[in-house]
Amino acid sequence: MRLNAFLARAGVASRRRADDLIRAGRVRVNGHVGELSTVVGSRDVVEVDGRRVERQPLAYVLLHKPPGVVTTAFDPHGRPTVVGLVDHATRVVPVGRLDADTTGALLLTLAGQVPPVAVYAATGLVGVGYAGAQVFPMAMLPDTAAVDAARSGSNRAGVFTGVWTAGETLGLALGPGIFGLVLAAGGYVSSRATTATQPDSAVTAIVLGFSALPAALALASLWWLSRYSLTPAQVADAMATSARLDADPTEEPA
34 and 146 in one domain? Predict the structure, then answer.
């Protein structure tokens, strides 16, 4: 862990302020003056102004920010801060920013970065969910085609596959279109060669577009999936009928 990250984890100061302390020679590691490139291990002794400091346990605080409070740890104008509202033994700092007059949920934490295991777990969870969203409907397709063939006596698997492909293509186009409407409603400012300053409403639209919107669309799709009414017995009967028709083409479907 870099020395400035260690000091931030110890609750001494932010990483930027920790860099100033290191440059001033106020930080020692194992008795030697620390540098910006110093890496701290679990057995190293770190001191600031002669006082030993240690890493604090990670803490996460979800705060409903009231109006009139600034999202910072210290305000030179003396206004109340979100850090001042949190009565926590561990020093926490806000993640993200809300305007002084804006209310809403705000996360405060001591963690300078997300642990790798959490990233892998989240990626795995999303991957399993995506795989399920793809495999579950696709598993219905051959069963539906088989039952239809047993009932009608005609193999229309190509028709079902075409309808599936068309619906999938429509969904791939519908999602970005709705996301674009959400960004437009939030006042998103597009740019090419220059950097654009986004209003808070655009930032909110981006967050919703990557969280609430996909969740809403996924929940809406459950209504369509719930209308799937074929049972394992019906599919088994259809498979048996198809096998008989293949063996005796003169037999009429039931």
Answer: no
Distances (CA, A) of 247 to 123, 144, 235, 240, 242: 48, 21, 18, 11, 9
CB-based burial label for 64 (10 Å; 0-12, 13-18, 19+): exposed
**Residue 78 and residue 29 in contact, taking contact as beta carbons nearer than 8 Å:** no
Do 27 and 105 reside in the same domain of the chain?
no
Each residue's pLDDT expressed in tens, for the chain with a length of 254 residues = 889 888 887 878 778 888 999 999 999 999 999 998 899 988 899 999 999 988 877 777 888 888 889 988 788 888 999 888 887 777 777 877 788 888 877 888 765 555 677 778 878 887 887 787 778 778 888 888 888 888 887 888 889 889 888 988 888 888 889 989 999 998 888 876 566 677 888 888 888 888 888 888 888 888 887 888 888 888 888 888 777 766 666 655 55
CB 109 within 8 A of CB 93: yes
Q: What range does the domain containing 182 cover? A: 116-247
Active site residue 99: yes
Pick the closest to residue 78 from 90, 69, 87 (CA basis).
69
Q: Is the dihedral of CA 119, 125, 130, 135 positive or negative?
A: positive
Task: Count the domains in the chain.
Answer: 3
Helix (H, G, I), strand (E, B) or coil at 77: coil
Instruction: Fill in the DSSP letter of residue 107.
Output: E
- Kindly tell me the burial class for residue 217, based on how many C-beta atoms sit within 10 Å of its own C-beta (0-12, 13-18, 19 or more): middle
Tell whether 142 and 170 lie within a shared domain.
yes
Active site residue: 99, 200, 237, 248, which one?
99
At 8, list the tokens. 């931030």
